[in-house]
């Protein structure tokens, strides 16, 4: 039994080392197996040797040294794909590693005997299997056989895959096989994608970075109350963007689009962002600008974002002094004044190191060279006071589309009534329509009144409550 296993192992090893055709490799494998059997037979005559000497030590010896011993004959090349790769003076997670892992999990995990299991996506019952450390699997590509092995040296955090192939397949592997692995792996990743909501934070090492949670907001365009024509046009716009890779390349523009969502609090700006992310199946990067100390930090954060993402700066008007009208270059701060965060129009000077995040820094971040990073990105600013914003920040080309989220209109109300109460029509609708025109009420307020809060609540009582609220609001508006 053991000699059979050793024979098989040797056959695989020889195949791998010599790059022989299967029949030749099988022959050589059999010869080596015969050698092992012979050695096993003579073992009783060598009593000094430990019991598992042949099975363990000789097997290991062959595995480890045969290839080295036959180095001059060894036609195999290896490519290592590490979990991290160098990016300047930092290490960053390697996309190729992730893609190779996804590719192997889909393609080759059937051969591996020891696997890791993970959920395909949050809340799903499907599992993704990936190879454990030291597992080896073979793959075929256009008639060539390659071998993959996974390593986790010392059980540490840094793992890598090793790809072994015959040197005559060098061009095939480099030019076709590896791109094929990345392409297929990316497709698998896209299928298994878990959407994430990132927020920026400054860790112990004072380097701005992202942390995330799974994004599970239930808002969709189906549940978003707004004028249907406006909603349709936003969805069309998003469709055109998502499918516009070739178009953007042809016209020489980075594949990104800016949206400015403006309107009073509670009119659905955040809800709209969630609906967009769900519609496009993109991640969200929610930047808290007040935690970003410098332009460099902002750029560093943006460069770390991945494609298929929505980068959001919410309530940009609330970011302290960040969005005021273009200012004259600031004067030098008193020597002992505390660091403040300002977004002035001029870059920071040496004397005024406290001026760290500038308007020009933000503008560069929005449409600077970083935006040429791979993949598509949507940038969204939200504000309650659009008139407060610097025109440079929201000009077309930066914020390509300005979307007003205004007070609840009758169309939006009807939508909410259907959604919350399940009614398409009701005798009180006419009264609601009349009062809505006078009362400036947010969609959030209307939604609140239409929500059933106890078992006795029904369409009649909810609509009656809404009417009362509308009457009060209307009086208040008229009173002003
Ligand atoms: N257009 C809408 N469609 C459906 N629900 C809405 C809509 N607008 C608001 N709501 C409801 O009101 C709540 C608050 O809305 P949301 O947070 O999106 O408003 P906002 O405009 O982002 O407010 P703020 O400016 O204060 O951040 C949401 O949780 C949602 O339930």
UniProtKB/TrEMBL annotation:
The biased composition feature labelled Polar residues covers 338-350
Pfam (any one): AAA_lid_At3g28540
- AAA+ ATPase domain spans which residues? 255-409
Which Gene Ontology molecular function entries are recorded, alphabetically?
Answer: ATP binding; ATP hydrolysis activity
InterPro entries, alphabetized: AAA+_ATPase, AAA_N_dom, At3g28540-like_C, ATPase_AAA_core, ATPase_AAA_CS, Mitochondrial_chaperone_BCS1, P-loop_NTPase
Q: Which terms does the UniProt entry file under GO BP?
A: response to stress
Q: Disordered: where is this region?
A: 324-350
Q: Which Gene3D superfamilies match?
A: 6.10.280.40, P-loop containing nucleotide triphosphate hydrolases (3.40.50.300)
Could you tell me what this protein is called?
A: AAA+ ATPase domain-containing protein
Query: Which species?
Result: Brachypodium distachyon (Purple false brome)
């Amino acid at each position: 039994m053991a000699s059979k296993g050793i024979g098989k192992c040797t056959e695989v090893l020889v195949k791998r080392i010599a790059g022989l055709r299967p029949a030749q490799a099988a022959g050589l494998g059999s010869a080596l197996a015969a050698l092992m059997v012979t050695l096993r037979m003579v073992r009783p005559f060598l009593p000094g040797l430990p019991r598992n000497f042949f099975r363990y030590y000789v097997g290991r010896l062959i595995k480890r040294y045969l290839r080295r011993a036959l180095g001059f004959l060894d036609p195999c090349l290896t490519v290592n794909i590490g979990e991290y790769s160098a990016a300047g003076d930092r290490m960053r997670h390697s996309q190729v590693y992730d893609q190779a892992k996804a590719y192997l999990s889909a393609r080759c995990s059937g051969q591996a005997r020891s696997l890791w299991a993970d959920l395909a996506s949050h809340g799903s019952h499907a599992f993704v299997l990936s190879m454990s450390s030291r597992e080896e699997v073979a793959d075929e590509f256009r008639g060539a056989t390659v071998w993959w092995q996974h390593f986790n040296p010392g059980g540490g955090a840094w793992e890598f895959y090793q790809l072994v192939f015959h040197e005559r397949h060098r061009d095939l592997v480099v030019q076709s096989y590896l791109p094929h692995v990345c392409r297929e792996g990316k497709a698998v990743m896209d299928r298994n994608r878990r959407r994430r909501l990132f927020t920026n934070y400054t860790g112990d090492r004072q380097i701005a970075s992202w942390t995330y949670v799974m994004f599970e907001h239930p808002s969709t365009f189906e549940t978003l109350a707004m004028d249907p024509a406006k909603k349709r046009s936003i969805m069309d716009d998003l469709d055109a963007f998502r499918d516009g890779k070739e178009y953007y390349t042809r016209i020489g523009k980075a594949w990104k689009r800016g949206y400015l969502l403006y309107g009073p609090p509670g009119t659905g700006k955040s809800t709209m962002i969630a609906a967009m992310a769900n519609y496009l199946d993109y991640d969200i990067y929610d930047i808290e600008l007040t935690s970003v100390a410098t332009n460099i930090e902002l750029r560093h954060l943006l460069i770390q974002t991945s494609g298929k993402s929505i980068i959001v700066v919410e309530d940009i008007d609330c970011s302290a002094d960040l969005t005021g009208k273009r200012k004259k270059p600031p004067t030098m701060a008193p020597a002992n004044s505390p660091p403040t965060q300002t977004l002035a129009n001029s870059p920071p000077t040496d004397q005024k190191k406290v001026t760290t995040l500038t308007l020009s820094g933000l503008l560069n971040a929005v449409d600077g060279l970083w935006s040429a990073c791979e993949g598509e990105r949507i940038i969204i600013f939200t504000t309650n006071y659009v008139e407060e914003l610097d025109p440079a920040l929201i000009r077309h080309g930066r914020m390509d589309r300005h979307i007003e989220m205004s007070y609840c209109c009758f169309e939006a109300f009807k939508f909410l009534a259907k959604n919350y109460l399940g009614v398409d029509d009701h005798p009180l609708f006419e009264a609601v329509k009349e009062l809505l025109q006078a009362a400036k009420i947010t969609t959030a307020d209307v939604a609140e009144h239409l929500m059933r809060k106890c078992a006795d609540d029904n369409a009649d009582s909810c609509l009656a409550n809404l009417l009362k609220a509308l009457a009060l609001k209307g009086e208040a508006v008229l009173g002003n």
